[in-house]
Design brief:
Oligomer: single chain
Number of helices: 1
Largest sheet: 5 strands, mixed
Number of strands: 9
Mean pLDDT: 75
Order of helices and strands: HEEEEEEEEE
Radius of gyration: 27 Å
Helix content: under 10%
Low-confidence stretches: 1-16
Amino acid sequence: MVRLLLPWLLSSLCAAECIPFDQAAKHIGETRCITGKVIQISAGEDGDHYLDFCEDHDSCPFSVVIYDLKKIGDVQQLAGRVIEIRGKVKEYDDRAGMILENAGQLGGESARLPPLPRAFDVEQRGHFSAGKFRAPRSRSTRKKRERPTLPIEIPEDVESE
């Protein structure tokens, strides 16, 4: 019986560790796990990205900011998903917020994000995704450079008079 209760108890403790995003303001200054459904991902003018848990970014009680996408991955994959994020809850503009500095802060189903596309540029507007996996091309398909065959004909020197 203890063997049955122990996994259930441990899983419930891990789930109880995360608090809903609307309660994050009560925990400013603490390192916590916050959970919520990402409604949209928005980009600021300076290249910062925001994970929004509400339709209106300005009236939402909690927001996550990402300064460097290369350390995180393709955050567009998080839209519409329930995520867990761990870190220090800080106060930004009279509301709670958190900085997502590395992918290790994410837990749950969002723990593994694909890397950014190689052609991704923060200044470029548009939609990006990690794309589809394609095996690398083999080297044997490349056209090899032709090498000269021997003997090479060398012109004879003309004797001058």
